Amino acid sequence: MLPQNEFLKNINEHRGIIYKIINLYVDDEEDRKDLYQEILFQAYKSYGNFKGFSSFSTWLYRISLNVSMTYLSKRDRREKIRESFPVDPVAPSKELSERADKLYRAIKTLNELDRGIVMLHLEGYGNPEIAEILGISKVNTGVKLHRIKQQLIQILNQK
User: Does domain 91-159 have CATH number 1.10.10.10?
Assistant: First the structure.
């Protein structure tokens, strides 16, 4: 199979990863489209360096999270221009149950790194894998995850 076809096949199989990350990091529909394209571009550009030491999904999480965090820092500069134009936030998907929607909203209140950690945890990744994807130590991952859980409990109990 040609590398391009293999890449497209893998992306199609794992595009849910990209959507999850995008929905956690941006609300505006235009930002979602821009971020999706940027993630695909960066993944395609980096695909030649993918050696298979980790699963494709782990590799795609790493790319998607890094691109999202970079995008947010660039977006902050663009926000100053947008402040003069009112924009309604895009509502979360109606497919989410009320309970999942509540958790999703609580997760969105966390900082960017914490969102990534909890999302990967909810996807079933262990602390060593999360640490590898995000480039932080395993111990730091465990400590952060514990604190994030406590923070989410407080947020969810307030609502």
Answer: yes
- Whole-angstrom distance, CA of residue 134 vs CA of residue 35: 18
CATH class of this structure's domain 1-89: mainly alpha
Q: Mind listing the pLDDT tens digit for each residue in 111-126?
A: 989 999 999 998 889 9
- Cβ-based neighbour number of residue 34 at 10 Å: 17
Distance separating alpha carbons of residues 153 and 69, to the nearest angstrom? 25
Q: What span, in angstroms and rounded, lies between the C-alpha atoms of 12 and 15? A: 5
Torsion of CA 36, 122, 136, 23, to 10 degrees: 20
In angstroms, the CA 50 to CA 48 distance is: 6
pTM attached to this predicted model: 0.65
Encode pLDDT of 46-68 as tens digits: 998 888 888 999 999 999 999 99
